[in-house]
Amino acid sequence: NWDTRLQVGSRDEIGMLGHSINDLAASLQRYRDTRRAFFSNISHELRTPVTYLQGYAKVLTDGLVDSDKEKKQYLSIIYQESVRLEHLINDLFDLSKMEEGQIKLNMEWMDLKITIKTTVQKVKLKAESKRLSLQLDLQDQVPLIRGDRKRMEQVLLNLLENAIRYTEKGSVLVRLTGKKEATVLSVSDTGIGIPKEELPYIFERFYRVEKSRAREYGGTGLGLSIVKKYVEMQDGTVRVDSQMGVGTTFTLIFTHEKKQRRDGMK
Ligand code: ADP
Question: Where is the HAMP domain (predicted)?
């Protein structure tokens, strides 16, 4: 039982050891809580689309729907829910590979402008269906960076999907600027924002801001931990700025110097 804290009286080595054990117990307890929350989340998240798939497929195969319009509507729900399932399974798969340290990146010189254009295309419909304007502000000549195209696309997709998911009205802006020292990519939204006290935790696995809010918006609590991990594997850093009710900006920074130094050493 990790709730039992040691009573620490002395201030010597034994006392310090006692404090360390208490800290360790507290972090184990936190790990257990997030794990438990994760499995209950994941079961819920898996069950919901499956219930829809079964329900609508059954109605269709039982011949209970006459109008073509309605049939189309049901098929479209089946399609959307299967896409949701696919995302969830992909996230889980990536996460388990990361845990085993099995992910190998295919590093090459790449143009982030192309990543942005491909990814934005994928979320266009989603943004339109919420009447959000999806804006690009891409500097003309941006230095190439070293990265893995597929992973970079997933990073940006996660950020864009979040931006759209947590924004009710306004816009989502993707900005790319290249300077001598770094290439900087940011995704800004005019959404609900993230409370200041939650900011240090949002990149943690399974972490979601407010449980009630998480249920309402869907998602798995895995997106940002995958973002951070992938960006760091590609020698980048992530930062977040947010103001409640105003919006959120995620910024990815890829420094050039460091890579050139390292390449020079090879
Ligand atoms: P989820 O699948 O729940 O979106 P993420 O790891 O992607 O999980 O994000 C963690 C939490 O951070 C989310 O539950 C959400 O509360 C918050 N969050 C992420 N992106 C945004 C954003 N653009 N605006 C507001 N809140 C966000």
Answer: 1-33
Residues in the chain: 266
pTM check: above 0.80: no
DSSP secondary structure letter of residue 197: G
Give this complex's ipTM. 0.97
Q: Which of 40, 208, 231 is the pocket-test mutation for ligand 1 (most atoms within 8 Å of CB)?
A: 208
Please enumerate in sequence order all residues whose Cβ is within 8 A of that of 222, keeping only pairs 6 or more positions apart, or say none. Answer: 91, 92, 95, 205, 206
Distance from the Cα of residue 69 to its chain's centroid: 35
50-80 residue pLDDT tens: 999 999 999 999 998 899 999 999 999 899 8
Q: Name every protein residue with a CB atom under 6 angstroms from any ligand 1 atom.
A: 162-163, 166, 189, 191-194, 202, 207-209, 213-214, 219-225, 248
What's the token pair of residue 130? 């919420």
